[in-house]
Amino acid sequence: MDLGIAGKRAVVCAASKGLGRGCAMALAEAGVDLVINARGAEALEATAEAIRAAHGVTVTAVAADITTEAGRAAVLEAAGTADILVNNAGGPPPGMWPDWGREDFIKALDANMLTPIALIQALVPGMMERGWGRVVNITSQSVKAPIAVLGLSNSARAGLTGFVAGTSRQVAGSGVTINNLLPGIHATDRAIALDAGVAREQGITPEEAKAQRCRTIPSGRYGTPEEFGATCAFLCSQHAGFIVGQNVLLDGGGVNATL
Ligand code: NAP
C-alpha cells in the first residue's frame, strides 16, 4: 500500500533502538525524511546510517535528552517545519506504590507526559497552518490495564492520554490527527530489562521469565519493533486522516477486554 507520505518530514523521538527505531524505519520505508533522537550518539548515528542505507531518505540525528528543555530545543531546531511527530522516551523504572516520592513522579511526568505535550505544543500549530499533520504518541498498555510494578508509567501516561483525548478533537478540523499507540510487551531492550527484574525477584532465569510472560499473551510471543513501526506509519499515512484521538493497543491480545 502506498502510504502517500513520501517527501514529508518527521521527528521521531527516542529512536536509536526499540519501538522508536521501528517507527523511524517504517516511516523511512514510506519515503519520509527524518530527524531522529536519542541520548547516546553512537547508537543513534548507527541507526541513522542503517535507515539511510535501507531507504535512501535524509536522516538528521540529534543526540540529546528529550526530557530536558535543551534537548527539546535542539530537536525542534533540526525539525523545522515537521509534518509528523512521533513522541517517545524511556519508560519509568519499576517499583511499588508506597516507595515513590514527589521527585520520582516529577521525573515520570516530565518524560512521559510533559515532554510529549511540549513537543505537540511546539509543532502542531505549524501543522495546522499548513492544513496537514500527524502525531503519534508511544504510550503503553498500562493506560488500559494498570501494571502493578509500573505505577509511575500508569500515572504519567494516563495524564498524556487525557490531554490527547481533548486536544486531538480541537485540531482535527485543521487536518491534524493525534493518536496514541499502546504497546504490550515487545522484544526490545526494555523487555529484556523487565524480564531480568522478574527473574531476580522470582529466582528464575530471564528465559523462564520470558516464557512465563508469553503464556499470558494469547499470541504466545512478544511483538516486534517492525510490526509496531508499520502500525505507526499507517497512523501517519494519508489513509488515517479520519482516525482521531484513538488509543490503539498492540499487545497480542494480552489485555483481556471486550472494548
Ligand atoms: P528501548 O528498547 O529501551 O529503547 C529506548 C530508546 O529510547 C533508545 O533509543 C534510547 O536511547 C531512547 N531514550 C530513552 N530515554 C531517552 C531520553 N530521555 N531522551 C532521548 N531518547 C531516549 O525501549 P522500547 O521498548 O522501545 O520502549 C519505548 C517506550 O515504550 C518506553 O517508554 C517504554 O516504557 C514503552 N513501552 C515499551 C514496551 C515494551 O515491551 N518494549 C511495553 C510498553 C511500553 P538512549 O538510551 O541512548 O537515550
Distance between the termini: 28 Å
Which descriptor suits the 3D outline? globular
Total strand segments? 7
Work out the radius of gyration. 18 Å
Stretches where pLDDT is under 50 for at least 5 consecutive residues are none
Number of helices: 8
Write the layout of secondary structure elements.
Layout: E1 9-12, H1 18-29, E2 33-38, H2 41-55, E3 59-63, H3 69-79, E4 84-87, H4 102-130, E5 133-138, H5 151-171, E6 176-183, H6 189-202, H7 206-214, H8 225-235, E7 247-250
Parallel strand pairs: 1-2, 1-4, 2-3, 4-5, 5-6, 6-7
The chain binds NADP nicotinamide-adenine-dinucleotide phosphate.
Residues 14-20, 37-40, 43, 65-67, 88-91, 138, 140, 183, 185-186, 188-191 line the site of NADP nicotinamide-adenine-dinucleotide phosphate.
Structure description:
There is one protein chain. The protein has 259 residues and is an alpha/beta fold. It contains 8 helices and 7 strands; from the N terminus they run βαβαβαβαβαβαααβ. It has a 7-stranded parallel sheet with strand order 3-2-1-4-5-6-7, sandwiched between helices. 42% of the residues are buried. The site of NADP nicotinamide-adenine-dinucleotide phosphate has 28 residues, from helix 1, strand 2 and helix 6.
